[in-house]
Amino acid sequence: MDKDGTRSRQITLFDSVGFAVEDFSALHYVRAKLAQHDVAMQLDMLADSDDPRDLFGML
User: Fold this and answer.
1) Run of H or E residues at 2
2) DSSP secondary structure, 12-54, as one string
3) DSSP 6
4) Those residues with Cβ within 8 angstroms of residue 30's Cβ, 6 or more apart along the chain or in another chain
5) Number of Cβ within a 10 Å radius of residue 16
6) Cys staple from 40: which of 11, 26, 28, 34, with CB 3.0 to 4.6 Å?
7) Angle subtended at Cα 17 by Cα 14 and Cα 9, rounded to the nearest 5 degrees
8) 57 and 49 in contact (C-beta within 8 Å)?
9) What gap in Å lies between CA 35 and CA 51, rounded to an integer?
10) CA distance 25 to 44
11) Is the pLDDT of residue 29 over 80?
12) Running DSSP on this structure, what letter comes out for residue 8?
C-alpha cells in the first residue's frame, strides 16, 4: 500500500456525463491501454437491419 492507503495498481474508471469530447477522450485512452496488452476484441456495434426504423426487427 502507498502512504495514503491506496494501492499503486488501482484503476479508476470515470463515468462522464456531459461533454462528448470527454467521453471520447476517456474511451480512446482506455482502448489504447487495452490494445497494448492484447486483451481487447473488436465488436460490430451497429445494427444492420433491413428496416432501420424497426429497432426490434433483429430480435
Assistant:
1) none
2) ------S-HHHHHHHHHHHHHHHHHTT-------S---SSTT-
3) -
4) 13
5) 14
6) 34
7) 0
8) yes
9) 34
10) 20
11) yes
12) T
2 Cβ partners below 8 Å, 6+ apart?
Answer: 8
What is the value of pTM for the model shown? 0.41
Residues 6+ apart with CB under 8 A from 47: 55, 58
Give tens-digit pLDDT for 30-51. 888 888 888 777 777 776 667 7
Q: How far apart are CA 17 and CA 20, in angstroms?
A: 8
